[in-house]
Design goal:
three-stranded mixed sheet; globular; four-stranded mixed sheet
């Protein structure tokens, strides 16, 4: 198999707190993929080392085999599939699916950037790495907040409640917005502890920004009607 950079990114694993990539002797890397691994300082290991002989549990226990109702939290750590972080990952999978379908049917290019952000967020959550700050669709966090709060000022379109008369594009965007909100709720359940402290504010913040951006796309489409 020939691994492109995109394929490599999708197959990065976490072992002993480090990001690694397992490569079979019969497989090869494109120059871009190899440059990515070098740039990110991700170790390449033989594929035979990918097999895990013993799984750890969050309660300190161990398992020799992975039960069907358990899945990987990270590395060799297993949790039940009902674990809050696994629910969060499922919600993010649903969000990805909604963004892809919406982009297919509407052709709105910004949805591709939002999709990339969603995939980055999942990867950083699995690897226990911070989500980097930056612009989304060319807008800073402050700019997103201002425009989503005052759409009349920036787009000549006030807040509105979607209706069937708005057409397929706006209604499909609204489904994406709802999917972001659902993912945000599962993130709150997964990353806010019993004392009300958030352990991953970067993830909550990123999802809030994504929700604002999808809403702005709805506003922009509504302004065209």
């Amino acid at each position: 198999m020939l691994y492109t950079e995109e394929a490599v990114r999708a197959n990065i694993r976490n072992r002993d707190g480090k990001r690694v990539f397992f490569l079979d002797g019969k497989d090869t890397l494109t120059p871009g993929a190899r440059d990515y691994l070098t740039r990110e300082r991700i170790e390449i290991r033989p594929a035979v080392e990918a097999a895990i002989e013993e799984y750890r549990l969050t309660n300190g226990g161990f398992l020799r085999e992975k039960p069907e109702h358990y899945t990987h939290l990270h590395g060799d750590v297993l949790v039940p599939k009902t674990h809050p972080r696994i629910r969060f990952r499922g919600a993010m999978d649903t969000l990805e699916a909604e963004l892809l379908l919406c982009q297919l049917h509407t052709g709105i290019g910004q949805l591709g950037e939002i999709l990339q952000q969603a995939r980055l967020l999942i990867r950083r959550e699995v690897m226990n790495e911070p989500v980097p700050e930056g612009k989304l669709c060319g807008l800073t966090e402050q700019e997103l907040r201002q425009r989503s709060h005052l759409p009349q000022k920036y787009y000549g379109q006030p807040h509105f409640m979607p209706s069937v008369e708005d057409g397929a594009t706006i209604l499909q965007l609204n489904r994406c917005r709802c999917a972001v909100r659902a993912a945000e709720l599962t993130a709150a359940a997964a990353f806010i502890d019993d004392n009300g402290q958030c352990t991953r504010p970067d993830i909550l913040r990123a999802l809030n920004r994504m929700s604002s951006m999808v809403y702005l796309l709805m506003i922009q489409e509504k302004a065209k009607l």
